[in-house]
Amino acid sequence: MDLGIEGRVALLTGASRGIGRACATALAAEGARVAICARGRESIEAAARDIARDTGGEVTAFAADMSRPDDVDRLLSGVAEAVGPVDILLANNGGPPRGGFDALDDEAWQAGFDVTMMSTVRLIRGVLPGMRERRWGRVLTVVSSSVRQPVDRLELSNALRPGIVGLFKSLAVTMGRDNVLFNCVAPGRILTERFLSGAKNAGMSEEAYAEKHRTTVPLGRLGRPEELADVVAFLASERASYINGATVIVDGGMIRSLH
Fold it and tell me: Does the pTM exceed 0.90?
């Protein structure tokens, strides 16, 4: 299936590994001109080289911290100059720290808000005018299954990520007439380093932790980053031209909610 995004400029944050990197690979394979960002320069440049080698696509790396407003501005300017105006944005800014309510002070709440909400707001603010002017845009974000069902000891995520869904739903309404579409992707148990980092908090080995969560998925296995990336590539495409304001759950059937 031709997704119709060859030559489109795609900016993805948090793309040196895991879900973000898989999404960058999927978009590059479809012919998009991909800009990827993460905090570590070495890791993001290595990812860009590997993705370009594996896909034959154009991939440009940028080092920036999305919790810092100046870094967001610098990233957007750099992408516009080096690659072009952004047509596709994937805000994959990582989740806030784990922890129960009693362990979270004001500083933790503020840091979680900055990395989860404000980084996304600033990215959208930077790319939206150009998308509206060109009358074509795809704005996506990776949230979590916690937007449908709270996750134990992830109080920051449980509180903040539904706010992202509310923002995207609102923008889907106000920007739809300009053909700028806003959608969220909510992963369940995807086998990434971030997912496995929960093992330490739970006092378990990574193998035992993965096995425990595997049993909660009706498909009987954890998801692969590439499986979520295929959904992102579709939502970023011309083929998804009538999907707007949606939150797509990619969880192997784990969430039982009807809404």
Answer: yes
